[in-house]
Amino acid sequence: MKTNYCLLIFFLIFLVSCKEKFEKSKWLFKSDMEYPYRNKIVDDLVENQKLKGLTYSKIIELLGTTNGESEPGKLTYDIETDYGMDIDPVYNKYLEINFTKDSIVKSFKIVEWKK
Q1: Alpha-carbon gap, residue 81 to 32, rounded angstroms
Q2: In sequence order, what E strands does the chain have?
Q3: 21-35 confidence digits (pLDDT tens)
Q4: CA–CA separation, 39 and 79 (whole Å)
């Protein structure tokens, strides 16, 4: 019985430690060619920051400029990219934010793909 409680406590501590609260400074921090904190804080960002309904300028103020080209009416922010042993990415995870014609966030999603 005590073993079950110990395992449960360990599991809960592990779950809590995997996610962190969103902080703009962590979101913007870039080390070499990657963003080491984004994967840990993106869940809090999309669950608690109320992105839907924000203006384009408020998104830029909150998340900074994107690191690549986006289509009109859309912004994308890299979260995690893995190159494996290749020059081209073999895995990518990014946040996609879509805007109305009036530059208001209408939707957002986290997109992942593997090669």
Answers
A1: 12
A2: 74-82, 91-99, 105-114
A3: 999 999 999 998 899
A4: 6
Place of tokens 């449960």: 8
| pTM exceeding 0.85 | no
Helices first, then strands: H and E counts in the chain: 4, 3
Span 55-102, pLDDT tens digits = 999 999 999 998 777 789 999 999 999 999 989 999 999 999 999 999
Length of the chain: 115
Q: Are strands 74-82 and 91-99 parallel, antiparallel or unpaired?
A: antiparallel
Dihedral of the CA atoms 69, 25, 84, 75 (nearest 10)?
Answer: -20
Token digits of residue 86: 């290749």
